[in-house]
Amino acid sequence: DTAVSQTPKYLVTQMGNDKSIKCEQNLGHDTMYWYKQDSKKFLKIMFSYNNKELIINETVPNRFSPKSPDKAHLNLHINSLELGDSAVYFCASSRQPDTEAFFGQGTRLTVV
Amino acid sequence: AQSVTQLDSHVSVSEGTPVLLRCNYSSSYSPSLFWYVQHPNKGLQLLLKYTSAATLVKGINGFEAEFKKSETSFHLTKPSAHMSDAAEYFCVVSDRTGNQFYFGTGTSLTVIP
Question: Do the chains contact at A40 and B105, CB–CB below 8 Å?
Fold first, then answer.
């Protein structure tokens, strides 16, 4: 069974569209994250979320919003997509603070 | 604030020779440190972690890392490189709450046959 799964794996869409990336973890973890990996492979935290608190990286545009229907899911919704949003997006989860994060396989988003 | 610096963006070694990937960290407290590996078009896999227990940490695939507080370093080593080790390696530090993991800029390892 896949611990952290993301769908879709690839997403190609036009500028201006709204899209969502889904993430599910079956590890019973309390905290989930979204990371963006740019073309230079650098990973940057976008959001972290547990059942108590949402922490938003202040550099993330408000076109990006996390949505958590339950503890096992943290979806990423993006409004009005721009060319610069093209990247690989990784979802992750961890059991508790200071333990390792388990990552999904990534979603390669291409905005044309 | 926490941060990590990976000193080499690219490292190239011959198969069968030792691997050294360097990482220095900055933290206002005793940090948790991790090394992750990313193979081409793949997700991130945890190699090993340091969480204030033994300073020499052994991970998967023969990798190990030593936490040196005096040098603020957490270098990744392997005695003998294998072709399958070619990948991108990330040094990571977590903040005190564990709510954020800060990634280094990555080191691309090439293994020459």
Answer: yes
CB A20 within 8 A of CB A8: no
- Measured distance CA(B84)–CA(B98) in Å, rounded: 31
- Chain B residues whose CB is inside 8 A of the A33 CB are 100-101
Contact B96 A97 (CB under 8 A): yes
The whole-angstrom distance between residue A26's C-alpha and the CA centroid of its chain comes to 16
Write out pLDDT tens, residues B70-108: 999 999 999 999 999 999 999 998 877 666 788 899 999
Q: Are B5 and B28 in contact (CB under 8 A)?
A: no
Measure CB to CB from residue B103 to each of A43, A99, A105 and give the nearest one: A43
Please tell me which of the candidates A45, A100, A102 has its beta carbon nearest to residue B100.
A45
Does the N-terminal peptide bond of residue A66 adopt cis geometry, omega within 30 degrees of 0? no
